Amino acid sequence: MRTLILAALLSLAAAPALAGQAVTLKSETLDADGLITLSDLFDGAGSSGKVAVATRPGTTAVLDAGAVQLAARRAGLDWANAEGIRRIVVRAGADGGFSAPAARGNVEVLTYARSLSAGEMVHPQDVVWAKAAGAPADAPRDADAVIGMAAKRPLRAGAAVSLRDVSSPQVIKAGDAVSVLYEAGGVSLSLDGKAMGAAGIGDTVSIQNTASKKVIQATASGPGQAVVGPAADHLRSLGRAQYAQR
User: Fold this and answer.
1) Are 152 and 167 in contact (CB under 8 A)?
2) How far apart are CA 84 and CA 68, in angstroms?
3) What is the annotated localization of this protein (predicted)?
4) β-strands 52-55, 35-37: how paired?
5) Is this model's pTM higher than 0.70 or not?
6) How far apart are CA 177 and CA 207, in angstroms?
7) Which residues of the chain have pLDDT under 50?
8) Residue range 158-187, pLDDT digits in tens
9) Please, which residues bridge with residue 195 across strands?
10) What CA–CA distances, in Å, run from 8 to 11, 12, 17, 224?
11) How many CA atoms lie within 13 A of 42 on its CB side?
12) Which class is domain 2-92?
């Protein structure tokens, strides 16, 4: 009898832990009632789909992917996040939008949750939807339009967000030493130069060759780094959303 009990215990100890139900993130995450549930985020959530993970105060909510993954795990779901997503943007669904004309003094706009200094990056928690008397002509409809961008000037908490407030984060400043790289067809060349202006990733910047003093146009690719040739064309084609910090 003891032998049978010992064998049973050993078999249980060797058995792998039960994995949660595998789910996949929806290609378009929408919420209709302001309460974001696991079924709004994942396909295959089943009965766990009713579990609420966040609220959507405006037309858009930005969720931390790690927190969502943990909430799903607690509800018995397994989201692998093989793509390494860092945040999830949830938008209003067909019934959860703000389609009715807004009266003056009751406009839903994106505002700054805190004051930002010039050069500071806008993070998801730095913006929030709120009511205002009016909206700037270039007010973004989506928080994702400014998240990852840098403030061009000091911005006051509570002020309505304008696209003119922000620009790509600067990785090169005027006077910086910059290494310029060219790669194509197995050929790799580099030169050292000095930046003649400031630039964010993907922006064109003038670089003066330290040796020849000639000025060339390159594309900023990182702090103190720029590229020319095919790599520059590829970087510019990606758009801000591909290389902004997430």
Assistant:
1) yes
2) 13
3) Periplasm
4) antiparallel
5) no
6) 9
7) 1-18, 95-104, 240-246
8) 889 999 898 878 889 899 999 999 998 889
9) 207
10) 5, 6, 16, 63
11) 29
12) mainly beta
Architecture of domain 170-243: Roll (2.30)
Pair of tokens at residue 113: 């949750």
Residue 210 corresponds to which tokens in the numbers above? 């330290």
Q: Do domains 2-92 and 107-167 have the same CATH topology?
A: no
Please name the amino acid found at residue 125.
Q
Pairing label, strands 60-64, 30-31:
unpaired
């909430």: which residue's tokens?
Answer: 71
Residue pointed to by tokens 């670089």: 207
Amino acid at 58: G
The structural domains of the chain, with segments of one domain joined by +, span 2-92, 107-167, 170-243
Three state DSSP letters for the chain: CHHHHHHHHHHHHHCCCCCCEECEECCCCEECCCEEEHHHHEECCHHHHHCEEEECCCCEEEEEHHHHHHHHHHCCEECCCCCCCCEEEEEECCCCCCCCCCCCCCEEEEEECCCECCCCECCHHHEEEEEECCCCCCCCCCHHHCCCCEECCCECCCCECCHHHEECCEEECCCCEEEEEEEECCEEEEEEEEECCCEECCCEEEEEECCCCCEEEEEEEECCEEEECHHHHHHHHHCHHHHCCC
